[in-house]
Amino acid sequence: MESKTIATNKKAFRDYEIVQTWECGLALMGSEVKSLRAGEVNFADSFALVGGNEVYLYNLHIAPYAQASSMNPEPDRKRKLLLHQKEIEKILGLTTQKKLILIPTKIYFNKRGFAKVELGLGRSKKLYDKREDIKKRDVDREIKRAVRDRQKGRGA
Asked: Is 80 exceeded by the pLDDT of residue 146?
């Protein structure tokens, strides 16, 4: 069984330069797991903060599971991320000293079937950095198109 990606946070890669990533467990309730399996998750404006000796994920919207009872948890509640204490201390040091931000980049189920979050440590991109990324992407696209067209021309 392979890991199954549920959702990726494309906005995080557009707006932030991801320096380092961690794989975190996610403390969920039963109906939230079913909603995740159905792909009912939204990253809009989600972020993580270190509070005390724990890391919490805020604004991650997991839609209520339709077949569950009326005891569904709140969709936008804060959720605890499961990390080792040394990792939490390292993250706390990096976020306070270097002014870096914790952003969830991906949610997936690992090989054992546990819900995991890939947490990225990033720094905000400036407008000119975003423009450079767009230029680089356009140039790469043009190069691939030219190579593909040239290969088609030879094969015909």
From this structure: yes
Distance of alpha carbon 121 from the chain centroid: 11
Rounded CA separation 79/3 (Å): 21
pTM for the model stands at: 0.75
Q: Decide if 3 contacts 95 (C-beta within 8 A).
A: no
Whole-number Å distance between alpha carbons of 31 and 88: 28
Contact yes or no for 104/23 (Cβ under 8 A):
no
**What residues have CB less than 8 Å from 65, skipping those under 6 apart?**
31, 32, 34, 35, 38, 40, 72
Closest of 45, 39, 25 to residue 103, by C-alpha: 45
Digit-coded pLDDT (tens) for 133-145: 888 889 999 999 9
Please report, for residues 22, 55, 64, 97, 147, the alpha-carbon distance to residue 120 in angstroms, rounded to integers and kept in the order given. Answer: 7, 13, 26, 16, 34
Q: Which of 122, 124, 106, 119 is nearest to 56 (CA)?
A: 119
- Read off the pLDDT of residues 20-36 as tens digits, 9 standing for 90 and up: 999 999 998 878 888 88
Query: What does the DSSP assignment read for 88-117?
Result: HHHHHHHHHHS--EEEEEEEEE-TTS-EEE
